Amino acid sequence: MFLRNVKESSYTEDHKIYVGSCVGALKEYDLTAENPYKPTNFQKISDLELGQGISALKWGNEEETEILVGRKDSVIQIYDILRNSFTATEKIPKGEVVSVCRADEKLIGASNLGQIYILDSKDNVTTFTAGTDISRMRQCKENTKLLATGGKERKNNLKVWNIEQETPIFSSKNVPHDNLQLEVPVWDSDVDFLDSSTLVTASRYGYIRTYDIRTQRRPVKQFVPKEEQLSFSCLATYENLVYVGLTTGGIRAFDTRSLKFPIHTYKGPSGSITDLALDHTGKFLCSSSLDRNVRINSTINNTILYQCYVKTKPSRILIKSPKKSEKSIKNEEIAEESIEMQTTEEDFTNDKILKRLKRKRKLSN
């Protein structure tokens, strides 16, 4: 018998998963609860209408207590986990919200039609045109004013933006023509920052590229499959590693310093991977797929630690892991100091014993 819901006994992390579905439902799964497969619905399914599917999820603050939700009907919402309610609703002029973020207390939404909308508290809207068919926008963690966009065809190639400027500070250039002198097709299905000057892209056409905006417009390194046809739908990064989801199911990990071959392969999903997310330690990889399952894999030994059937097709996912509070940090410091005190006392007593033994030896001689 095939078990859809699985949780390994060795998996004891205090994680919570937030899943956005294609029908528009937002759910929470508490993996430490008695029933880790039972969701908490943040809104009634009966209140949803056709075309309100969730197309973007992003944390709204560093404490991970707010969730920014982007929908296919051009709506951006803010959900407050502590208040258990939606606290704000905005709407971009047109298009499907493919990505959403926040910078300088301003909401930023990217439309699949190519526009980036910056919404402030005074209902003022600033618009950038990034192309005509945008697949994803990402925000730099080191500098929240930097944005990266990528999409289908050469007009929507990788671009880096500063929200204080209306023109891109970097626009990538395609690789040289192939052996038949034909242009290599471009479709950056997902992009992300490795740091403030290095980026990585994954493509529906099967390539992975890294860029350094300080040196050149063309890719610095590139992975192109030779023996198999691959198509990448999404990616997630941690330090020098990039995890890419396949449209045919499965996840692969690459080291961006070489990009010669995948260093890990994660099996399990039978449907296209819709989203990937890593916890803050980088040890747990969360994925959602069109086979209506969400999974957590160990990035160390590649095993599936948690799997749950979510009924509706998941489109976006977030994973929340508890961060150390100030009290716990202080308690750890106090414990370390007490251990140091004990070791110094033991060393002191050991020195006394050694001195006594030396005296006895001298007297005996």
Quick structural gist:
With 365 residues, the protein is mostly beta strands.
Question: From the alpha-carbon coordinates, what is the Rg to the nearest angstrom?
Answer: 25 Å
Give the overall pLDDT as a whole number: 87
Strand order of the largest sheet: 1-28-27-26-25
- The CATH top-level class label of the largest domain: Mainly Beta
Provide the domain count. 2
Number of helices: 1
Range of helix content: 10-25%
Q: What is the CATH topology descriptor of the largest domain?
A: Methylamine Dehydrogenase, Chain H
Any idea what the CATH superfamily of the largest domain is called?
Answer: YVTN repeat-like/Quinoprotein amine dehydrogenase
Major sheet: 5 strands, antiparallel
Instruction: Specify the oligomeric state.
Output: single chain
The CATH level-2 architecture of the largest domain is identified as 7 Propeller
N- to C-terminal distance: 81 Å
**Count of DSSP strands:** 29
Low-confidence stretches: 324-334
Tell me the series of helices and strands, N- to C-terminal: EEEEEEEEEEEEEEEEEEEEEEEEEEEEEH
| Outline | globular
Fraction of residues in β-strands: 35-45%
- The secondary structure category is mainly beta
